[in-house]
Amino acid sequence: GRNTTSTLPTNEFYRYCITTTANCTGNTWTNLTSPSPAPGTVQAGGALIAFNSTDIYAMQGNGLTGFWKFTVNNAATGDGTWTDLSSTDPTPAPVQSGGALTTDGTYIYATRGANTNAFWKFNPAAGAGSRWTVLNTTPVNIGSSAINTTTQGGIAYSSTLGDIFAVPGNG
């Protein structure tokens, strides 16, 4: 079981079943850590985004540049395979509290957090080693530079407007 009193980073990975289907019981969480633990430990600034029907991208956070892709291989169980993109496409700078991800369906957008205004775009279709682009900075700093903090922040994409919205979470 999980040590819920620890503030140490973890590589645990879970699936939440929203409604009951042939594959899962609604309103339940399933621990996917075995056989599919995250490639590294995650803490402040760790974030996930479902990019399409099979691929989920993740930032490691914890003051690191880890970036990973989880591909669902079995929709019934949620099992899949992690690909560590950190060797070819690490985040452009270490991610901390306030690190967040969103997508417009073509690109993945990210904030670094760490009480910075860093804003990036990841192109999954680009060749390895050239997938990140540094974008115009956010108008305010997002998150906190502390590793163990409750200060966060976030971003979200509106498909209706075609815009990204942000909250700094550093106050």
Folded structure, characterized:
It is a single chain. This protein has 171 residues and is an all-beta fold. The protein is built from no helices and 12 strands. The strands form 4 sheets. It has a 4-stranded antiparallel beta sheet, with no helix packed on it. A 4-stranded antiparallel beta sheet has the order 7-8-9-10, with no helix packed on it. Strand 11 and strand 12 form a beta hairpin. The protein is globular.
How would you summarize the topology of this molecule?
Layout: E1 14-17, E2 28-31, E3 47-50, E4 55-59, E5 67-72, E6 80-84, E7 100-103, E8 108-111, E9 119-122, E10 132-134, E11 154-158, E12 163-167
Antiparallel strand pairs: 1-2, 3-4, 4-5, 5-6, 7-8, 8-9, 9-10, 11-12
Shape: globular
What pattern of helices and strands is seen along the backbone? EEEEEEEEEEEE
Give the strand line-up of the largest sheet. 3-4-5-6
The major beta sheet can be summarized as: 4 strands, antiparallel
Binned, the helix content reads under 10%
How many beta-strand elements? Answer: 12
Roughly what fraction of the amino acids lie in strands?
25-35%
Structural class: mainly beta
Provide a count of the helices: 0
Radius of gyration: 16 Å
The averaged pLDDT comes out at: 85
Q: Which parts are unreliable, with pLDDT below 50 for 5 consecutive residues or more? A: 1-6
Termini separation: 34 Å
